[in-house]
Amino acid sequence: MMMNKVKVIGAGFAGVEAAWQLANRGIEVELYEMKPVRFSPAHSNEGFAELVCSNSFKAMRLGCAAGMLKAEMELMGSLCVECAKATAVPAGGALAVDRDKFSALVTEKILARKEITVIREEVTEIPEGDVIIAAGPLASEALSDKIKELCGGNLSFFDAAAPIVTAESIDLENAFMQSRYDRGEPDDYINCPMNKEEYEAFYEALINAESAPTHEFDKRKGVYEGCMPIEVMASRGHDTIRFGPMKPAGLVNPRTGHRPWANLQLRKENKAGTMYNLVGFQTNLKFGEQKRVFSMIPALKDAEFVRYGVMHRNTFIDSPRLLGEDFGFKAREGLYFAGQITGVEGYMESACAGILAGINAANRILGKEKFVPDELTISGALARYISDGNVKNFQPMGASFGLLPPLETKIRDKKQRYEALAERGLEALKKQLQGDCNE
Q: Does residue 318 register a pLDDT over 70?
């Protein structure tokens, strides 16, 4: 028996997953997709879940955060993982697909569901009633304007993100905790001091490092306003960043009793303090160059990067202020957001957000409790990250072990540690799902 109706806007990865979860629970769905009536500049295929960049969904092994996420999604009944496996092409340890066959299979399965009605038209207003907005980063201008209005102006059109490292990989022997001029709590920041020789070597490497290519979308006015890349700032003068993001003013290194020559501050990225942001280090360097150059800072010599810095066009809302852990919009019951617009980064991350939004929209209609995966899972950690009010300068995040609470027993070997984290998380999710089935 059909119950209620949910309008899902967008038939990308998030939209099809949300519609699939709703249909599986007997909820009628109207799935809106503006193709082929209108195409974004990046889309050309009329099918659903179109891949516009790489055809790879990253690694499959459980000792990798991307592999762990896909395993979790399978447990939750993912349409995209099922279709990806059915249309896979050889790619070593990665899950890569024939993009046309993948999109065609997803489209075929969605169209075959009697619970889902596909409406091919552009949505320019946010509908009343139960709605899931799964428009991607290239949402039409008309819909983007309405989303921005709904969010009180809190809609970003560009990523300008600094790298994030895991807390446990920071070398505290070469760091100290202190706020400038002792304002605030002592552990608000981890300071990474450098002497003159260390700074000179770091500076030369930084200004000579290779930047990532800039796409046409990224060249639009506004991408660098108020968030200049650290390498561009450094190129303007030898001491520019030493009087900017790396200024040592108001700090004293307790090991030397003196102010550092230069200093990088790290700020907590989440409430649990498992991740730290490189303050003021927005960058457009290639990922390999970020690892090489930023690891020259003594406290970061063994740093594990949860996310590298990026600067490109994107569209995402200020989720920590606007969404709950269930991806529900706090200011309007029955409205959910899903996909990259929520601040998750990547194909499968977007699809996972769709799964969770779909489950929770259905649960609300069916009178069931909200569903948020266990904090030990990648999916649950992402849901908590995008809704964590302690995240101040919110930027998109992909699957990463750095999001998870550390193991009770420390494992030095990275491969074994990651496998243990995956095993722990998947076991927790299985128990949680089994409990939900028994209710």
A: yes
| 77 DSSP 8-state letter | T
Residue of 126, 164, 26, 166 whose CA lies nearest to 341: 126
Report, at the CATH architecture level, how domain 164-311 is classified.
Answer: Beta Barrel (2.40)
The HSE-up count of residue 92 (CA atoms within 13 Å, CB side) is 4
- Bridge partners (DSSP) listed for residue 31: 8, 118
Domain boundaries, the chain: 3-154+318-438, 164-311
* Residue reference for tokens 């992909």: 398
SS3 429: helix
Q: How far apart are CA 257 and CA 327, in angstroms?
A: 48
Across the range 338-351, mean pLDDT stands at 93
Task: Enter the tokens of residue 1.
Answer: 């028996």
**Residues 189, 231: Cα–Cα separation, whole Å:** 23
Which residue do the tokens 């099809």 mark?
A: 16
CA atoms of 4 and 11, how far apart (whole Å)? 20
Query: Which residue shows structure tokens 């028994």?
Result: 438
Q: What is the mean pLDDT of the chain?
A: 88
Summarised one tens digit per residue, pLDDT across range 70-116 is: 999 999 999 999 999 999 987 778 898 888 899 999 999 999 999 99
- Retrieve residue 59's tokens: 């690694």
Give the three-state DSSP class for 3.
strand
CA distance 79 to 347: 13
CA-to-CA dists, residue 297 to 160, 192, 267, angstroms: 22, 7, 16
Fold of 3-154+318-438: FAD/NAD(P)-binding domain (3.50.50)
